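hey
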């Protein structure tokens, strides 16, 4: 493919409609109508109905875990997972994540302590984490960033030596496995998000899972106001329930998830084929033995070698109708609510800071065609080829 003139230099935009970074799997509307008809017929819309129970059973099998408790969203799932452990003190986590991660720590009356990530995997660095453990540390909350598994063996080891529980934010990691072991079986608990932007979704939803069922009953209680029976409330629960309509949607999306993941996998390969050798682009390191879910495709842009900064590329792609996203920028530690923490200093978070200035997530979803992926990749390459002119135009705006 020959390089085309960027839209910013009066070329044609690569796309005549906006291409977003993701698109949800959409089930057959008639199949969903049939399921909702059955729900309406039963007049049972929420509170552990038949569809929710079926959804939890299927998820338990699919995720290879001892139990799966569904929630109304991933944030409530994570919030409740932390609450279930009865923690007090500080929770070590990553700043290179979605704001929900540290927010769930704060909403539990706990204090986030940010540690740096590894420059290659983008995940919390267990070596740095271990050095940051103090008597106040009550838990570690790593995130499997973009579905790339954390160094689960190292965290397991730290957890055992220090007697500190690990709770994984597995929002991105549905269906991921490490050396044939499912991601939800690591740590004390893992929380998934089933938001429409995640690879598996039910519009809004989430789940908490684990390899053993010791915390299952406690999660059920906390998810439903702490209500034990008609006469007893035990513990300060909330309303975290998933309803029947969302569970039904989840059941249908689950039927399509394997195909969605494999379509995305083919597109990721196609991106790599065209972009791996482009000067100034780098990618998240995935260790052998990992089965990914292809949640996301992110490039890391070195401004000097590529010719444009990440922000310039983001802007230029916008003019091509390619809507890329800066995941994750700003760092959580840079937000006003966290920036005064002792652990939020830039010198403490050098890798995360560098990454957040360089990363750019490109469109990736099963309904994207291979031709569209080629067009996005080639557009990115032409931006680098025309970098000098593009820089000038952007500066003059
Ligand atoms: C999406 C996301 C969440 C929150 O999930 P919701 O279902 O949107 O509430 C939490 N953590 C991470 C890392 C996420 O990306």
């Amino acid at each position: 493919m020959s390089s085309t003139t960027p839209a910013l230099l009066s070329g044609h935009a690569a796309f005549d409609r906006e291409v977003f970074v993701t698109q949800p799997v959409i089930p057959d509307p008639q199949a969903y109508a049939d399921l909702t008809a059955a729900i309406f017929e039963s007049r049972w819309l929420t509170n552990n109905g038949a569809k929710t129970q079926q959804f939890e059973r299927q998820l338990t099998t699919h995720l290879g875990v001892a139990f799966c408790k569904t929630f109304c969203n991933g944030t409530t799932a994570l919030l409740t997972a932390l609450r279930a452990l009865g923690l007090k003190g500080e929770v070590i986590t990553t700043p290179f994540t979605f704001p929900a991660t540290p927010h769930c720590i704060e909403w539990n009356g706990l204090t986030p302590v940010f540690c740096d990530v590894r420059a290659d995997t983008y995940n919390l660095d267990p070596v740095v984490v271990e050095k940051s453990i103090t008597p106040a540390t009550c838990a570690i909350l790593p995130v499997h960033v973009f579905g790339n598994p954390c160094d689960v063996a190292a965290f397991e080891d730290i957890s055992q030596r220090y007697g500190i529980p690990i709770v994984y934010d597995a929002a991105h990691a549905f269906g991921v496995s490490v050396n044939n072991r499912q991601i939800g079986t690591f740590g004390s608990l893992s929380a998934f998000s089933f938001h429409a932007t995640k690879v598996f979704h039910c519009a809004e939803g989430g789940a908490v899972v684990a390899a053993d069922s010791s915390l299952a009953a406690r999660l059920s209680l906390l998810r439903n106001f702490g209500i034990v029976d008609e006469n007893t409330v035990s513990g300060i629960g909330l309303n975290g329930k998933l309803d029947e309509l969302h569970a039904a949607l989840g059941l249908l999306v689950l039927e399509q998830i394997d195909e969605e993941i494999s379509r995305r996998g083919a597109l990721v390969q196609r991106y790599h084929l065209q972009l791996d050798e482009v000067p100034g682009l780098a990618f998240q390191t995935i260790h052998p033995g990992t089965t990914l879910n292809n949640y996301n495709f992110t490039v890391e842009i070195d401004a000097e070698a590529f010719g444009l900064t990440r922000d310039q590329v983001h802007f230029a792609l916008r003019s091509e109708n390619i809507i890329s996203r800066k995941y994750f920028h700003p760092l959580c530690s840079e937000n006003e609510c966290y920036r005064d923490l002792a652990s939020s200093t830039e010198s403490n978070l050098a890798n995360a800071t560098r990454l957040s200035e360089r990363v750019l997530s490109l469109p990736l979803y099963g309904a994207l065609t291979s031709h569209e992926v080629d067009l996005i990749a080639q557009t990115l390459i032409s931006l680098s080829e025309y970098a000098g002119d593009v820089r000038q135009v952007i500066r003059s705006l």
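Residues 73-75, 97-98, 100-101, 143, 169, 171-172, 193, 195, 206 surround pyridoxal-5'-phosphate (CB under 6 Å). Residues 105 and 394 are 40 Å apart (CA to CA).
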